[in-house]
Specification:
Elements: E1 2-3, E2 6-7, H1 28-33, H2 38-51, H3 65-96, H4 104-127, H5 131-145
Antiparallel strand pairs: 1-2
Helix pairs in contact: 3-4
Length: about 150
């Protein structure tokens, strides 16, 4: 009783029926993909190791409008976060000081100035798109239109 050279030549004297089953321990699909993209995985591991433990957030690819909107929303959220941090620190200073040097109107004014400055910086930072990024965006739109 053998199948493709696997199994016993004869079940006689083996205390088994000689029935041959497929081995579930060897997963051929897993074995085929095990070595796939080894260099890519090594490069990613090396990059993460070089970054250390800080800021392991993946960069968002800005090739379609959904990701561009996500980046814009994230940038504006970051601006509002910095404004709220300033507001919290100024309110803490106002509460801690006995003399009222800061008024809520002053806090609002400083927060508005910071918000405008950060938005202006954001506009100047995002106004220019490098040639490589423009070409990449043109290539993806051309490929999807074809």
């Amino acid at each position: 009783m053998s199948y493709n050279g696997i199994g016993l030549p004869s079940a006689k004297g083996s205390s088994t029926s000689g029935h041959i089953q497929r081995s579930l321990a060897s997963n051929e699909d897993r074995d085929k993909n095990r070595g796939k993209d080894y260099l890519k995985r090594q490069a990613e591991a090396k990059k993460l190791k070089n970054q250390g433990g800080v800021n392991r957030v993946k960069k968002i690819n800005i090739t379609n409008s959904d990701n561009a909107n996500a980046v814009k929303r994230y940038s504006l959220r970051e601006i509002e976060l910095r404004v709220s941090e300033l507001r919290d620190s100024l309110e803490d200073k106002m509460d801690a000081s006995s003399d009222n040097e800061l008024t809520p109107e002053d806090i609002d004014k400083q927060c508005q100035q910071l918000r405008e400055r950060l938005k202006k910086e954001h506009r100047t930072r995002t106004a220019y798109t490098s040639r490589d990024n423009r070409n990449a965006m043109n290539d993806t739109t051309t490929a999807t239109a074809s």
